[in-house]
């Protein structure tokens, strides 16, 4: 079998060991990334529920401090594409300005009850002092027919994560969960078990060698 040597030419590493090391490294990096994402999601939910409890106790009916959506319509292409994920933050209606991208509860008969993410192209103040926002999708030819009331705005788009919707869909499938989560975890567990067994064998061998030396000395 072809051999690979390190720079000191002390140890010989086989192709099999190189492949195992590479796969082990990639698996660990992947799982660390998954763990980091889960930690961020956990922190996200902590802020979400703390803010929700505060609003409930204070009697205020505010949207969540942060929220996330997966885009399913091409109305904001190329700024935001289909299956991109967006993170939004609740902001004061007075801080919203023309050019901001917002997510809101649509009252349009065509999109009634759905969350829409479009850009603000104009702001109007109603007779009662509340703000109304004229919105339009970047990929649409005309503006939205219905103005958006400030109480229907969920938040302003902070940033997008390209194509995360496909990842979410894949991980939600049985095959995706096995391939991306179960198999890497199982592989790490198996390699750790093998490593521990090797260490135990080495320790037993060392003990037996030491006991043999003691017998010869006696």
Write the layout of secondary structure elements.
Elements: E1 3-5, E2 12-14, H1 15-58, E3 66-70, E4 85-89, E5 101-105, E6 115-125, E7 131-136, E8 148-149, E9 153-161, H2 164-172, H3 174-217
Antiparallel strand pairs: 1-2, 3-4, 4-9, 5-6, 5-9, 6-7, 7-8
Descriptors:
218 residues; alpha+beta; seven-stranded antiparallel beta sheet; two-stranded antiparallel sheet
Describe the structure.
By secondary structure, the chain is α+β, with helices and mostly antiparallel strands. It contains three helices and nine strands; from the N terminus they run E-E-H-E-E-E-E-E-E-E-H-H. The chain has helices at residues 15-58, 164-172, 174-217; strands spanning 3-5, 12-14, 66-70, 85-89, 101-105, 115-125, 131-136, 148-149, 153-161. It has a seven-stranded antiparallel beta sheet. A two-stranded antiparallel ribbon has the order 1-2.
Poorly predicted segments:
1-10
Quaternary structure state of the chains depicted: single chain
Q: How do the strands line up in the largest sheet? A: 3-4-9-5-6-7-8
Portion of residues within helices? 40-55%
Say how many strands there are.
9
Pairing-aware structural class of the strands and helices?
Answer: alpha+beta
The major sheet is characterized as: 7 strands, antiparallel
Q: Indicate the proportion of strand residues.
A: 15-25%
Ends: how far apart? 45 Å
**Mean pLDDT across residues:** 82
């Amino acid at each position: 079998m072809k051999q690979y040597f390190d720079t000191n030419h002390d140890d010989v590493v086989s192709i099999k060991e190189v492949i195992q090391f590479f796969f082990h490294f990639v698996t660990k990096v992947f799982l660390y990334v998954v763990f980091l994402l889960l930690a961020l999601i956990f922190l996200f939910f902590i802020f979400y529920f703390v803010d929700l409890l505060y609003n409930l106790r204070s009697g205020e009916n505010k949207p969540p401090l942060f929220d996330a959506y997966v885009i399913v319509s091409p109305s904001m292409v190329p700024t935001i594409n289909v299956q991109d994920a967006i993170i939004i933050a609740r902001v004061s209606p007075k801080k919203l300005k023309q050019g901001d991208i917002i997510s809101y509860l649509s009252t349009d008969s065509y999109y009634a009850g759905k969350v829409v993410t479009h850009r603000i192209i104009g702001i109007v103040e109603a007779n009662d002092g509340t703000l109304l926002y004229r919105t339009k999708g970047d990929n649409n030819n005309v503006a939205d027919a219905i103005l958006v009331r400030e109480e229907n705005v969920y938040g302003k788009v902070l940033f997008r994560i390209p194509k995360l919707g496909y990842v979410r869909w894949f991980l939600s499938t049985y095959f995706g969960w096995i391939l991306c989560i179960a198999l890497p975890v199982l592989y790490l567990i198996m390699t750790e078990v093998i490593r521990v067994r090797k260490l135990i064998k080495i320790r037993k061998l060392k003990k037996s060698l030491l006991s043999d030396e003691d017998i010869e000395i006696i």
